[in-house]
Write a structure and sequence with these properties.
Elements (H helix, E strand, L loop, with lengths): L14 H8 L3 H10 L6 E2 L5 E2 L2 H16 L4 H39 L1
Antiparallel strand pairs: 1-2
Helix pairs in contact: 1-2, 3-4
């Protein structure tokens, strides 16, 4: 059985890396940090935010609710408060389906 290398995942990401991934301004992420209890990045001695993969998952959830679904901030807070785990599962499912769709489109284009 061939050895499969495990992808190395960083433990912490900068606010710039998170903003780049979502294509939003860093100021928006700082704003959401103040508005939502589920975003709690650690800060180093310099005061720079250090986001864990869990923090990033939570930021993506807020992005999905506010930017993609059009929730108000209060609506997003209420949605998360009711069942954050169900909301995260739903986001993961949507992301998986987007990847499958992208793969199928790519496959169709290769066949054509």
């Amino acid at each position: 059985m061939p050895y499969k290398e495990k992808a190395i995942e960083k433990k912490y990401y900068t606010i710039g890396e998170v903003a780049d991934e979502l294509k939003v301004a860093t100021s928006l992420i700082r704003f959401w940090e103040g508005e939502f209890d589920i975003i709690k990045p650690k800060k180093n001695r310099k005061g720079n935010r250090q986001f864990t993969p869990e923090d990033i998952k939570n930021v993506k959830l807020i992005y999905h609710l506010v930017k993609e679904k059009g929730y108000t901030l209060q609506g997003a807070r209420d949605f998360i408060k009711n069942d954050v785990n169900a909301a995260l599962s739903k986001i993961e499912l949507i992301n998986s389906l987007k990847k499958v769709k992208s793969f199928l489109i790519h496959l169709r284009n290769d066949i054509s």
